[in-house]
Amino acid sequence: TQLLEQSPQFLSIQEGENLTVYCNSSSVFSSLQWYRQEPGEGPVLLVTVVTGGEVKKLKRLTFQFGDARKDSSLHITAAQPGDTGLYLCAGGKDTGRRALTFGSGTRLQVQP
Amino acid sequence: EAGVAQSPRYKIIEKRQSVAFWCNPISGHATLYWYQQILGQGPKLLIQFQNNGVVDDSQLPKDRFSAERLKGVDSTLKIQPAKLEDSAVYLCASSQLSSSDTQYFGPGTRLTVL
To answer: In chain A, whose CA is at the least distance from the CA of B46?
Structure first.
């Protein structure tokens, strides 16, 4: 079974602070995706990274895929209350199966 | 473009009862997934369809769970009989066959088993 461990599980910060969420695995993935999920909704894709060492930026969010494609991080600069939600990483395998293996999630609360 | 539709949004049943969930994927998406998300955890794949064929159902508890996608479009997921530990959000997602692994999720059905 491929496991994706996310840390921290919970994070409560003040508006304007920076934070980093980590996603680690012992398995190699062909792609790594980050989702954000709000209460009562399904996960929404934020970014996909496919190359070891790849860095992608989405406004105040920076995503990095580890060189060995086993881990990833999400860094948020100057967090805002609108960033509040459950952040999920998900690994994909380059097979016909295509289904994703999700991490357990990091619940972020940004206080105004 | 309409997103993935699911119904009902909420369901409360007694243990040992039966329940069914419905999913309408994005038009043209060949692949459909059902995930189970227990409170405090990430989604776990139950079953994956490609058109009307099953690609992966290795994590589906087949003694009580069943799913079908008869015409390669809509899908239903059934639980019979339900157990307390089946309380979860059931998410449906769809993706195009030949594109990247971008999956689009529905809002989910929250099941409570009493």
So the answer is: A99
